[in-house]
Description:
Elements: E1 10-16, E2 20-26, E3 38-50, E4 55-66, E5 71-77, E6 82-88, E7 95-98, E8 102-111, E9 117-125, E10 131-134, E11 144-147, E12 167-177, E13 182-184, E14 187-194, E15 197-203, E16 208-209, E17 215-218, E18 220-226, E19 232-238, H1 245-248, H2 252-263, E20 272-277, E21 284-285, E22 290-294, H3 310-319, E23 326-328, H4 334-353, H5 355-373, H6 387-405, H7 407-420, E24 424-426, H8 428-439, H9 444-450, E25 458-466, E26 469-476, E27 487-495, E28 498-506, E29 510-515, E30 522-526, E31 536-540, H10 543-552, H11 556-564, H12 572-581, H13 585-594, H14 599-609, H15 614-623, H16 629-634, H17 641-654, H18 659-666, H19 676-687, H20 693-703, H21 710-722, H22 728-738, H23 743-754, H24 758-769, H25 774-784
Parallel strand pairs: 3-12, 19-20, 20-22, 23-24, 25-31
Antiparallel strand pairs: 1-2, 3-4, 4-9, 5-8, 6-9, 7-8, 10-11, 11-17, 12-15, 12-16, 13-17, 14-15, 18-19, 21-22, 25-26, 26-29, 27-28, 27-30
Helix pairs in contact: 2-3, 3-4, 4-5, 4-6, 5-6, 6-7, 7-8, 10-11, 11-13, 12-14, 13-15, 15-17, 17-19, 19-20, 20-21, 21-23, 22-23, 23-25, 24-25
Amino acid sequence: MIKWINILFAACFFQSVTAQEWTCYLNDEKAQPRERLVDFKHIELDIEIMPYQHLVKGRATFDIEPLAIPTDSIWLDAPNISVLGVSSDQNDSIAFTQNSEGIAIKLESPIQPGGMFKLHVDYSAHPQKGLYFVGWKDSADVRQIWTQGQGIDNRHWFPHFDYMAEKQTTELIVKFPKGYPLLSNGKLVSKKDEGDKTTWHYKMEKPHSSYLVMLAAGTYESDTITNARGLEISQWYYKGQEDMVPYTYKGTKEMTEVITDFMGVDYPWERYSMVPTRNYLYGGMENTTATIFAETFVCDSLQYQDKNFVYVNAHEFAHQWFGDLVTSVSPEAHWIHEGFATFFHHYWLGEFFGKDEYYKQLDIYRRASFAASKKNIRPISHSGAGSARHYFKASIVIEMLRQELGESAFRTTLTEFLKRYEHKTVSSEDFLRTVYDVTGKPMNWFWDQWVYRGGEPMVRAELTKKWGKSHLILEQTQPDSFGTYRLPMNVKFAVDGSDREIELDFNARKDTVELPFNVKDVDYFILDNAHKLLIQEDKQQTDEQWLNQMLNDDHPMAVVEAMRNLELADYDNELKKLFEKSESEFVKIKLISMISENQELVDDLLKSVKEESVEVRKAYVENCKVTDVGFLETQLIATSYELRREALKQIIEADRANAETYMRITEDLKTDHQFLYRMDWLHLAHSVEYITEEDFVGEMEKYSGPGYDFVTRNRALMILRAKKIQSEKVIDNAMDAAQSFNRSLRSSGCQYLKALDEDTRKELLQKVMLSSNSLKIKRLERCLK
């Protein structure tokens, strides 16, 4: 969903933040909102969707009001849509011209500001984007349609002015084959059966952006729960998968209550629904009142330990406020959408799974932010900042703002911001102004360095003793173009077994802080004791100090920082002691990943690992060579598919002579929703000749076909390519995959086809060229030539 743009040039401005200096900001052409001549008040779609033909047809009706000046011209985005006619209540035929991007409508006379105009557009479309059809041309058990509007893809299935800053109420009247439940935004007004079709009527009473308009229909069932605030929540699932609902939607009621309480503003819409979809393009999408998410998050009790819906669930629900209720006026403030959604899902992970999970994710977000700055220094307010900044860095920036304002002021600010701009659009500056209005604190310096400027501060810290006095020397070492940061921080010093803390406001390139104790007595020090600042630290400590920090600090982030700065091969006894005493899964998992090549220590840790959680045992088996086959055998029935798979692989490697026995006792173990465990089992069984080539190919062919989700098909095609299996059925399935709208599946299909011998590829290309489908030819040519 992130659109990358090229940087054309940089513009430099003279700023006075904490010191006068030149600071460079990147120009962003997409930061400006799109020009609008009219205000679309309401959209009504009265359409029929014919899934077997991948066709949508019907009428779009718009209630339109000119803005400041009279106009006789209206533009609608409508790429590859066949417009059959344009009319109004007063005129049966209105002139229009159409090109590849949309339609320009010319009215007979200008409509005046303050007057309302109703426009009708009759159309049909075979959409290549925006509206997707799954399973209707196959013999698949799962048949679906679903939409993905963000960023500007809804324009491919209904004509409209497709821009996030345009908000209107919407109404969808959809005729669809009978027997397939259909979901859209807002309240279900009516449902009427007519022969072999059903007409569904959904209506939104409050305005929202058009990219949030959604449809989903197919082989679904649903149930409804109600949280403590009275919000009705619909949980959709595939027929026959009722047993997966408790694990897929685990914690949903509690999550919706906690996030709503934090917002300080009631849930702003009529109801809320969640619906899984096959071959979905992303993790999830926050359509107003109805989240669509990838079926890869549908899980049972075992897959819940490996991959679950918890964080995506919280992320998309938080978007109902940040993104749906309050919307960016242009891509400049996209970070407000994704940053707050990530902030809230991160907060919920800490509440639901514990602080350890919070810190584990924080470590990922920090490292992703730093990695992004190695590529370019776009700020979070740049439209091309990318996911690492719009999501991860922005959430850390919001957390830093929370620390700076204090909990009460931060929450009050969010509540005021949401109330002030409900059903409106905002810029980054609007949020800054709200902070000032609520707290009285001018936070321009914060916005300048964290929102409008790219890169992150790099701080070198060193303890010294000069002229009989002890000092902490701090220096900002980031490039000059990053500017100088103001860094409020609490520095902790462990001195002779007790903690001493000093509050600093470090706002210069270099500063020296006199310390009220002897640096020789400092066991170690923590530069940012709150572990909230997004800074790259270059902390000068001795190995002994790093070791003291690793063994004695009680914060997981500090412990992991110390491990990363030590040569761990020299500290087997200390690491074993740390593993045994630490209560942090995050610390233990990081420790395991760092010592995986130290076989003696790996073996020494096994006794402790046996008593650990699934996550720690999984990290141990995935990262290390396990020599205790008896332990591995116990993991074959662990409550995790990934742990079962890795244990079986290691057993076969260690005891190939008894491979047949192990394959037999694991043959009928339950597999996950995506069949990943089953396919890996088949791969191993074929490798040790437990099953025949015919049996292996027969089952794997099935998983590579269109009756399965793209994750399943990707794994099947990868295994079949590695095994050099080139059956006619697999080639057909790869050809189908290579034409998919899902980029990941398309790539897997292409990789398989490219691995075919040249004569086979030439023969396939000749068949492709006979097709009348230009898009099919274009996609397959790339794979076969």
